[in-house]
Write a structure and sequence with these properties.
Low-confidence stretches: none
Catalytic activity: Hydrolysis of alkylated DNA, releasing 3-methyladenine, 3-methylguanine, 7-methylguanine and 7-methyladenine
InterPro entries: Alkylbase_DNA_Glycosylase/TA (IPR051912), DNA_glycosylase (IPR011257), HhH-GPD_domain (IPR003265)
CATH class of the largest domain: Mainly Alpha
Helix content: 55-70%
Number of strands: 0
Pfam family, one: HhH-GPD
CATH architecture of the largest domain: Orthogonal Bundle
Protein name: DNA-3-methyladenine glycosylase II
Distance between the termini: 15 Å
EC number: 3.2.2.21
Radius of gyration: 18 Å
Number of helices: 12
Order of helices and strands: HHHHHHHHHHHH
CATH superfamily of the largest domain: Hypothetical protein, domain 2
Number of domains: 2
Structural class: mainly alpha
Length: about 210
């Protein structure tokens, strides 16, 4: 199933800005050449995948996702909320989903189907307003909402302070491997504004050269 891949229009401007402002970014950015953040799929599918992948390995998550997606009567690149709501709980469990993840996926589908999340308005809403809508869905916490802002909506200025990879990247690249507090991480991140998502992406790359995709 081929899906369109989108990259941010602001990426080159962000790289120039960060390279001027930050000595670590000046060294890191050239190492990854043309690599950049990519977004694919639609909002509901992206969030459903994030729920399926919670607390299991990437490989296991892909296996469960493939079985879950195969339950749809009309397989496509996009998952329809109504189609998820129509599935029997036992059928979803048989695809390898835990009882809790079944509850989360059904709640997600209900939020989208009922219009409780304002997908069409997200373009005009600020980051915190979108996070507030998303964390009202069972199984979606602030970290998942921030990953969604970065990877799906491609918001340029998200600093996910609950992300282990970000804290580790700041520790290794700015503090010679010493542990860093959230306050220290925030202070480093403030210097990256208005492109904190881009700097975060490069710090993730410094730990693992393979780009993460959602």
């Amino acid at each position: 199933m081929a899906t369109a891949i989108v990259t941010p229009t602001y990426w080159d401007d962000a790289c120039r800005h960060l390279s001027k402002r930050d000595r670590v970014m000046r060294k890191l950015i050239p190492k990854f050449g043309e690599g950049r953040l990519q977004s694919r799929g639609d909002a509901f599918t992206t969030l459903a995948r994030s729920i399926v992948g919670q607390q299991i390995s990437v490989k296991a998550a892909q296996s469960v996702w493939d079985k879950f997606a195969a339950l749809m009567s009309e397989p496509s690149t996009r998952l329809a909320p109504a189609a998820v709501m129509a599935l029997e709980v036992d059928t979803m469990r048989a695809a390898g989903l835990s009882a809790r993840k079944v509850e989360y996926l059904r709640d997600l589908a209900q939020h989208f189907d009922s219009g409780a999340v304002h997908v069409q308005q997200w373009h005009d809403m600020d980051d915190e307003a979108i996070i507030e809508e998303l964390v009202a869905i069972r199984g979606i916490g602030r970290w998942t909402a921030e990953m969604f802002l970065i990877f799906h909506l491609m918001r340029p200025n998200v600093l996910p302070l609950d992300d282990v990879g970000l804290l580790k990247g700041i520790s290794l690249n700015y503090f010679s491997g010493e542990p860093v507090s959230r306050a220290e991480a925030r202070e480093v991140g403030d210097a990256w504004a208005p492109y904190r998502s881009v700097a975060t992406w490069y710090l993730w790359r410094s730990l693992d050269p393979l780009p993460v995709e959602y």
